[in-house]
Design a protein that fits this description.
With about 280 residues, the chain is an alpha+beta fold. It has helices spanning about 1-10, 15-25, 35-45, 50-60, 75-105, 150-160, 160-170, 185-195, 240-260, and strands at about 65, 75, 110-115, 120-130, 145, 200-205, 210-220, 225-235.
Length: about 280
């Protein structure tokens, strides 16, 4: 009796609510796109009040919607967007690798695929193809950097929703190298400039003697999916070739975007002859 009383008084497993939430979401499929609270509770063997509380939380976050008249639930926009992001994450490396190989062959520099960390506070190198030149930038996949420093990271930050970007800025701008932007207002101006011209550049923002150029790849809703870029050592930086690099990276970004149903914003601020025009669609 003592053991039974002790077990009944113990707190529920910390992940029980999370497990029930996923169980509810998994009930929505092609055969059962709609559910009432009572139907869901019965199908899962859960109390109706418990299922109702979870559904209300999911509705507030946009993961389910509720019909005003029937009160039945369907998956919401947030769930669909989560599925899109998951599909992109699964396919992204496989699609991007041959594109990065071609980009490195064309530019002679290390090419990079960079994405946001799950908390949207840093950028992480998901894939890279290093230059074959003796003097080159070496980047390890999995390396993380703050979003305010470096071309690829700034592209990710520039296309974050405003609230998320402001949280990053308000958290503090660490000084990494001689040209790291640490003033919030200067960074906001830089992000606006990136959005206007559709690409970012950096010089000695993360490491001495390192420069970079990057272009965003966007989700259907205009938020960031990833950044495609190149980086290299300063002895090979030729200002006259930056426009050519931007045009080539833009072309590579579209190759990734086309394969995944994504998009790339137009670029400006580079000489027209440098760009190999993307065919009209």
């Amino acid at each position: 009796m003592a053991d039974t009383a002790r077990r009944s008084s113990e707190p529920r497993p910390p992940f029980q609510v999370l497990e029930r939430t996923f169980a509810i979401l998994e009930r929505f499929d092609e055969e059962h796109p709609e559910w009432s609270t009572t139907e869901l509770a019965r199908s899962l063997g859960l109390p109706i009040p418990t299922v109702h509380r979870i559904l209300m939380a999911l509705r507030r976050r946009g993961y389910v919607t509720q019909h005003e008249e029937t009160k039945r639930f369907r998956l919401g926009v947030a769930a669909l967007q989560l599925g899109d992001r998951a599909r992109v994450a699964v396919d992204l490396r496989a699609v991007a690798l041959p594109v990065l190989q071609s980009l490195t062959a064309d530019t002679g520099e290390t090419s990079l695929l960079t994405v946001l960390t799950p908390d949207r506070q840093r950028g992480v190198c998901l894939e890279r193809v290093e230059s074959a030149q003796p003097l080159r930038l070496s980047v390890t996949p999995g390396r993380q950097l703050p979003l305010h420093a470096g071309a690829s990271q700034k592209v990710l930050l520039a296309y974050l929703p405003d609230d998320d970007a402001e949280r990053v800025i308000d958290a503090g701008l660490e000084h990494l190298c001689v040209a790291t932007i640490t003033d919030p207002q200067s960074l906001r101006r830089e992000l606006a400039r990136i959005r206007r011209r559709g690409w970012a550049s950096s010089y000695e923002e993360t490491n001495v003697g390192v420069w970079g150029v990057a272009v965003p790849v966007l989700q259907a809703d205009g938020t960031i999916a990833c950044a495609i870029g190149i980086a290299g050592p300063s002895p090979r930086l030729r200002p006259g070739r930056v426009g050519e690099h931007v045009a080539r990276i833009h072309e590579a970004a579209w190759a990734v975007a086309d394969a995944l149903g994504l998009s790339v914003p137009p670029i400006s601020g580079v000489r027209p002859f440098a760009a190999r025009r993307r065919r009209a669609s």
